[in-house]
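Supplementary Methods S3. Input chains for the assembly prediction are listed below.
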Amino acid sequence: MKKVLAMVLAFCLIFALCAVNASAEDAKKYEGRRITVAHRYTGANADAVRAEFDKFEELTGCKIDVEVLAADADEAESVLLIRAATGNLPDVFSTNVGAKLWELDPESNMYDLSGNDWLENVNDGYLQITSRNGATYGIPAADSTVAGVFYNKAIFEQLNLEIPKTWDELLAICEILKNNGITPVEQIFGLANGRQFQFLMQYYYVQAEDPEFAAKYSRNEVALHENAAYVRGVEKVYDLWEKGYINEDPLSTSVEVAVNDFMENKYGMVFRNTSWYTAVNQISPEAAANLGFFPMPDIDPDNIGVTLWMPHAWVASQNSKNIDVVLDLFKFLTTQEAIDAYTSVLTPTGAFLLKDVTVNCELSDVIREAQACAAASSAPAMEYSCNIKGSNMATILSMVGTGEYTPEQGIEEIEMDNAIDAQQKGLEGW
Amino acid sequence: MRRLDKRFYPGWLAVPGLAIYIIIFAIPTFVSFYFSMTTWNLRTATFTGLKNFNTFFSMTSTRSALINTIIYAFSTCSLKVVIGLLLASYICSGIRSGEYLKCMIFFPTLLGSVTVAVAFDGILNPNGILNQFLAKFGIDAVRWLTNSKYAMFSCIVVDVWKGLGTATLIYIAGLSSISKTYYEAAAIDGASPVQNFFKITLPLIVPSINTVLTLSLIGGLRTYEQIYALTGGGPGYSTEVLGSIIYKLFSRGSYGLATAGYVIMFVIVSCIVFPLNSFVNKKGEDING
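Predicted structure tokens for the full assembly:
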């Protein structure tokens, strides 16, 4: 009897083991595996990339731990630099592309993605700025953004204002708005990026005047004050303050305050990138429908364009022990399925820089206008071709924008501040 | 008992503490002297001599920051030394609400600097609680944090509010250790409360004053996070301090220059705190005869 019982039990055990094995075969590919992704997205953007990761988890069983780097761009890059130097990079991380990417010494720290057939699905231009010496290091992490002037359509219609083709025309519009008791321009100096947007978007005109400017400046072959368009960028910031066209307390103005003021029709224009639409739309879709877009004009009505900001790149750490999972994740992130997950949470405000991918959600008119401007005439921001930027640029621009510095003083200060940064980076010619 | 009195602790007992001190403090301090004389990108360091120090002092923001740091450190320090002593004397005077006051005053010390800054941003911003309160008296909104006239003053008030608890607590400990017999003897001699304070209390709490002075002065000279979270160093450079400049340089990847900034801060703190400390100690010895 005991023998029979033992045989039955043994049979049950073997059967149970077989059952376990069968279910293991059915299990998802990366069940039990775990990777860490570090990025600096916050708010809706963070939710959108999380939606992509959730989908990947659902498909493969892998768990993705997200680590949020500092929201401040400089601080996040510094954290990555320190972690790279100490061999402590996460499996995947997001980083700025162009000059910033090379600062992280990709040959020593990043996994070379070249040779993977799914890279063919990435925009060629984007691959160019993430590739060096035949190696490719990054794929786009989100959509690109376009910078320009967002205006209140209702106010413009009410006052019969037309889209300005030159900076002088824009100033004339400001005068009309001011005379009608409306603040012409809302400056958002409460944030470091808010102090810089208006100036940084001038780069389209800087490179139009001298296409080699960034390269020459990187080698210290040209000074900032020698490029008239660059100087005009600082003058434009000063113009608005000098003529009394900006809000009363720009230094206390945050994005929240500016969105609120827009909803109350307190101002006519704001200098931002297309993520401004997301900020307004999240609080009031009605107000977002009242947004219009035009490129910041310069002196030539026939040469008007916008400056573009590329999406951050997803990059894999060379030391990752989960490179198989990471490569599958990257493959997934270049597919329509990932973009659908992203756009289910956040309406994109730019192009994803992926081929064979369509955005299956309705884009707003203002984003279409911005995209049309970008398609017509645009240039990537200077930071993608030149990594010289002093630690005080935001402060200096806020001082120009509030009249503490004249444009000449502002340029001089930026030159001195940038020179220190270039020397500290050990760039040749400095 | 006799054996216990004579027994010495073996030297190796100091090894763990000494090792931690050497690894975490001494080595990084000396290594930073070297890196302050380099252009350093965390991978390679190129020796540049004293160039970083020259660059640091040539920066426009450094001039404002040096003045602001001194104003900030001495203002917060003196306010904490004086107000803390008054509060501690009041609490130790036998009032019924002493324990409650102690908790109330110490509570802000438990909060993080950035938490305090965020809370005060809500109070001090143009539409904040303070301006709403002032509006009831017909006073126009004051830009406490974005007007260069008031920004530094606001930062100082916030820091004193946060740091007063520690100062008061140190004073309370000092006051509690003074023997009652001095006051009893003085009472027999007919001393007034003012005489008691200046002739007994003050001389006997010199060590506490010295501690508060040293801690708050060092804190004031090297702090930046609370100011940075409140004003970002602005408007312009009006609340820029040494710490915030160094922080900005670090976050831009100028590690050699930022390290030079730290060395300069180390020298400034040492040059101010050590002489001041020995001066106060000497004064204390003179008073105590």
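Residues 113 and 226 of chain B are 5 Å apart (CA to CA). Residues 255-287 of chain B form the longest helix (33 residues).
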